[in-house]
């Protein structure tokens, strides 16, 4: 993609940010609640750095104006190295408006080993990254972040920002162990490590413009037939700087109870493609993919949906519920639906049945291009 002008100066004007101190952390900003001016870009390319599978037999294709270029064998110049797949997601987003380019790294997979390995094999340039986005506080989406920063921080912008959906990203999470009432640790995003790496976290509970090219949905309203399917549990509170700030929660939420995760912090990352419409990227869609798209439409004022991309967390969905959700997605009239990660093979099959000419199933290493 063509180089940009003043690549390191854009953050000063990319969003209305209220700078402040949250829970004593000076490296935190809170996105202002004012309406945003949604940017338009000419082109977007998404490189799938990490997904759950790789298929070397996929053929290049173009569907509804969206180009899909798979990575072939997934090997680099050294035949002994190969793309790593894992339960998680990471996307390298390069957008273009005239001669101005921006690069956003959205989510970081489960482990730094996989992320760093795939960056090297796919030959993307991490030093071009203008902003970081974490979709929600699950380890399979932030696990590679600190390793990425360890490797590349000194080559990135001094004022680098991580855009997170809200304070809830930093809460401690656990997973059911299979034994009634018992849980296993699922970790928590450590903002102390981010501060040590000179990364400012922006809490985007309100819609926020990122890098002057993208925008986030802010907190997603829940108005569709969708429901949160069973996943993690959450523990709220702050101890020795680790966890989520207790002042954000009511006394009832702070009784030390481990409660089902409602994902109040999850947000989607979106691009408005000139002449095409919205590309809505939902890394997991716990709060509902239809809800996420509707929120993007409301925030942007753009009704046309060009592409719905990412994880939709419908792998565990019962058949009748899955059928109903896919029917609701179809009503949104997207040009393409591109399931990844936790969407599930069941979703891909149902979407292909209901929307046969509108589904692209990518793989780790795929490159998806939207726009001219």
Tally of separate domains: 1
Q: Give the neighbour order of strands across the main sheet.
A: 1-2-12-9-8-7-6-3-23-5-4
Per DSSP, the total helix count is: 7
Classify the secondary structure makeup into a structural class: alpha+beta
Instruction: Fill in the CATH topology.
Output: Metallo-beta-lactamase, Chain A
| Fraction of helical residues | 10-25%
InterPro entries: DHPS-like_MBL-fold, Metallo-B-lactamas, Metallo-beta-lactamase_dom, RibonucZ/Hydroxyglut_hydro, TAT_signal
GO molecular function: hydrolase activity; transferase activity
Protein name: MBL fold metallo-hydrolase
Keywords: Hydrolase
Spell out the key features of this protein.
single chain, 372 residues, alpha+beta, Metallo-beta-lactamase, Chain A, eleven-stranded mixed sheet, six-stranded mixed sheet, 7 helices, 27% strand, globular, disordered N terminus
Walkthrough of the structure:
By secondary structure, the chain is α+β, with helices and mostly antiparallel strands. It has one domain: Metallo-beta-lactamase, Chain A, CATH 3.60.15.10. The chain has 7 helices and 23 strands. It has helices at 112-122, 139-142, 145-152, 191-196, 289-300, 319-331, 345-354, and strands at residues 17-19, 28-31, 43-50, 61-63, 66-69, 90-97, 100-106, 131-134, 161-164, 172-176, 183-185, 200-203, 208-210, 214-216, 233-235, 238-239, 242-243, 259-260, 269-273, 277-282, 305-311, 336-340, 367-371. The strands form 4 sheets. Strands 1-2-12-9-8-7-6-3-23-5-4 form an 11-stranded mixed beta sheet. It has a 6-stranded mixed beta sheet with strand order 13-14-19-20-21-22, covered by helices on one side. The protein has a 4-stranded antiparallel beta sheet with strand order 11-10-15-18, with no helix packed on it. α5 links the parallel β20 (277-282) and β21. α1 packs across α3. 51% of the residues are buried. One of its GO terms (molecular function) is transferase activity. This is MBL fold metallo-hydrolase. It holds the Pfam family Lactamase_B. Keywords: Hydrolase. Residues 99-158 form the Metallo-beta-lactamase domain.
